């Protein structure tokens, strides 16, 4: 988001009026790729495309999977 911070710090100016131009931003909720979030936050578990049963640690090597 450095682009947003830069735009807010020094907004572009309309060359005809000298007024700062509005900053238009599209915001969307993020996905943390968890089935519980997909169901609870978005109500979209039927379209969940992740893998809900992957363990956090590799059972064969002990290293982190995620």
Please, could you describe this protein's structure?
The protein is mainly alpha-helical and 66 residues long. The chain is built from 2 helices and no strands. The longest helix has 8 residues, at 2-9. It is elongated.
Q: Strand-and-helix sequence, N→C?
A: HH
Largest sheet, described in full? none
Identify the quaternary structure here. single chain
Count of extended strands: 0
Gap between N and C termini: 24 Å
Number of helices: 2
Write the layout of secondary structure elements.
Blueprint: H1 2-9, H2 35-40
Structural descriptors:
66 residues; mainly alpha; 2 helices; 0% strand
Offer a quick outline of the entry:
This protein has helices at residues 2-9, 35-40. The chain is mainly α and 66 residues long.
């Amino acid at each position: 988001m450095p682009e947003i911070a830069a735009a807010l710090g020094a907004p572009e100016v309309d060359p005809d009026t000298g007024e700062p131009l509005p900053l238009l931003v599209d915001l969307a909720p993020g996905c943390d790729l968890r089935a519980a979030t997909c169901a609870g936050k978005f109500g979209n578990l039927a379209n969940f495309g992740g893998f809900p049963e992957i363990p956090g640690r590799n059972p064969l090597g002990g290293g982190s999977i995620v």
